[in-house]
Amino acid sequence: MSYILHIESTSTVCSVALSHNDQLLAIKELNNGYTHAENLHVFIQDVLLKAGIASKELNAISVSTGPGSYTGLRIGYATAKGLAYALNIPLITISTLQALTTLAFQQITADAYYCPMLDARRMEVYCALYNQGLEEIAPVNALILSEESIMVYKKDKPIYFFGDGMPKAKELLNTLPSVCYIENIVASAKALIPLAYQKFLQKDFDDIAYAEPMYLKEFYFATPKK
Questions:
Q1: Domain 3-96+187-202: which topology?
Q2: Whole-structure pTM value
Q3: The pLDDT of residue 44 is above 50
Q4: Where are the beta strands (DSSP E) in 48-158?
Q5: What is the full DSSP assignment across 31-71?
Q6: Which end of the chain is more exposed for a tag (fewer CB within 10 A), N or C?
Q7: Could you report the per-residue pLDDT of 32-42, keeping only the tens digit for each?
Q8: Which CATH architecture is the domain 108-181 placed in?
């Protein structure tokens, strides 16, 4: 028996879920801009209350590891590490792009490739490529969208593209053969559940002191105009 709290803060979605083994017990999420600082701790309290579970009953904390929003990742990691340390329970980190792909698997089971895309602002996306077994075909990267760069996705099988970065890539992707789209897949803490439970059973835990998010890019400081 295991109660795992799951935190997703890599995008505009602020999401917290609680699972019992691999089953969802409660979830609260909001996709309304970067509201993690205001809402994350409140959402944690709400899902625990909804499920009737005390924090001391938790067996592990899982957190989405990115890539994604620099600030969102920092807030999510600080919260997850703080809770894991205070409660003396394991920390489990889950690839955001792998978690998104498990949501795609709930809709499509074809023998194909799967490409989650997260918006990285401007004409750039965070993406990776997986097969039906969630094995990595192309590594996680920050892809600048261009006619040349998208040729890496010219494959011998259909490719399903999805995620909040996919819409701005469509015009270029439509030039490729065997391109398919899955709409309305967004980051959610519920997507962490199956992967986190598998790691929990395998005791595949992260060091609370040294675990760091996957940023991919340096944080950009805007200089205010005078």
A1: Nucleotidyltransferase; domain 5 (3.30.420)
A2: 0.91
A3: yes
A4: 60-64, 91-94, 113-119, 124-130, 136-144
A5: ESSS-HHHHHHHHHHHHHHHHT--GGG--EEEEE--SS-HH
A6: C
A7: 888 889 999 99
A8: 2-Layer Sandwich (3.30)
